[in-house]
Write a structure and sequence with these properties.
- With 287 residues, the chain is α/β, with parallel strands linked by helices.
- It has two domains: 29-115, Leucine Dehydrogenase, chain A, domain 1 (Rossmann fold, 3-Layer(aba) Sandwich); 140-264, NAD(P)-binding Rossmann-like Domain (Rossmann fold), CATH 3.40.50.
- 42% of the residues lie in helices and 16% in strands.
- It has ten helices and eleven strands.
- The chain has helices at 8-28, 44-60, 75-86, 106-111, 124-131, 140-151, 171-180, 195-200, 246-249, 263-286; strands spanning 4-5, 34-40, 63-69, 93-96, 160-164, 184-188, 204-207, 227-230, 234-236, 239-241, 255-256.
- The strands form three sheets. The chain has a six-stranded parallel beta sheet.
- Helix 6 (140-151) runs parallel beside helix 7 (171-180) and helix 6 (140-151) crosses helix 10 (263-286).
- The protein is globular, with a radius of gyration of 19 Å.
- It starts with a strand and ends with a helix.
């Protein structure tokens, strides 16, 4: 029996419709949600991501401010921009597009953002709150994955979940979110032994490697009716691909995300949600 598609576009549109109403409510109180983005350098992919985020904000009524800095920007100069935005009452969310040029320290940069304006959910304070189940602003991609589980009523409690990723952006926060939903979670990575066997025992597999030269999740690695979430996205032979071949995996899995059109739209939707949440938090402080 062929599995079902987890449609990230459908779920993200449902989220955006709710967010539009929240924006209108804020505007009725003379509060206009505002997201400031900072792009350092001329990375084409990063520039495209920032542009897409601005377009998504505009579609639901979130104001944006765009800061483009040269590739030679120093840490002090970048911190100065962030400092000004931290204290700008008209700005409710701050996003620094990653990765940064080599001369800049990612941890120092993210740490300089006020946690209440941290719409990526990556400051040490927000990551710490996430670990103890008290976070409000959570990393966007993991939050988007959780939203898809809720939308399609995919049960997490008591399920064996394997995450193939241990990054601060995806694997680590996702581990905590799944644990808080009573799943049993195993985190795998490049040094994990017997990965195939571990995956074959999983009810849910979330893979986010993004390098087909090193890894591909194949149908013989999953058990019948497993749920497969493919977070990875890269370009191969002129096409956007993930860690799986959707047409192959869906013959065995019960639910599968496509690439593109799966997790990607949810990441943007959760950024919008975080921006509106941050606006509400900042509004209370300013008032």
């Amino acid at each position: 029996m062929v599995g079902k598609k987890i449609d990230g576009v459908e779920v993200s549109n449902a989220v955006k419709n709710i967010l539009k109403n929240a924006v209108e409510k804020l505007k009725s109180e003379n509060v206009i949600p505002c997201l400031a983005t900072i792009l350092v350098g001329n990375n084409p992919a990063s520039a495209t991501y920032v542009k897409n985020k601005h377009t998504a904000c505009d579609a639901i009524g979130i104001k944006t401010k765009d800061f483009k800095l040269s590739a030679e920007t120093t840490q002090e100069q970048l911190n100065d921009v962030i400092h000004k935005l931290n204290y700008d009452k008209d700005v409710h969310g701050i996003l620094v597009q990653l990765p940064l040029p080599n001369q800049l320290d990612e941890f120092a940069t993210v740490s300089s953002i006020f946690p209440i304006k941290d719409v990526d959910g990556l400051t040490p304070q927000n990551m710490g709150l996430l670990a103890i189940g008290k976070s409000v602003l959570k990393p966007c991609t993991p939050s988007g994955i959780m939203e898809m589980f809720y939308y399609y009523k995919i049960e997490l409690e008591g399920k064996n979940v394997v995450i193939i990723n241990r990054s601060n952006l995806i694997g680590k926060p996702l581990y905590n979110l799944l644990l808080q939903n009573n799943a049993t979670v195993i985190t795998c990575h490049s040094k994990t032994k017997n990965l195939k066997v571990i995956c074959q025992n999983a009810d849910i597999i979330i893979t986010a490697v993004g390098d087909r030269a090193k890894f591909k999740l194949t149908s013989d690695m999953i058990k019948q009716d497993a749920v497969v979430i493919d977070v990875a996205i890269s370009r191969h032979e002129g096409k956007l691909i993930g860690d799986t071949d959707y047409d192959d995996i869906i013959q065995k899995a019960s639910w599968v995300t496509p690439v593109p059109g799966g997790v990607g739209p949810m990441t943007v939707a959760m950024l919008l949600k975080n921006t509106i949440t941050a606006t509400s938090l900042n509004k209370e402080i300013v008032n």
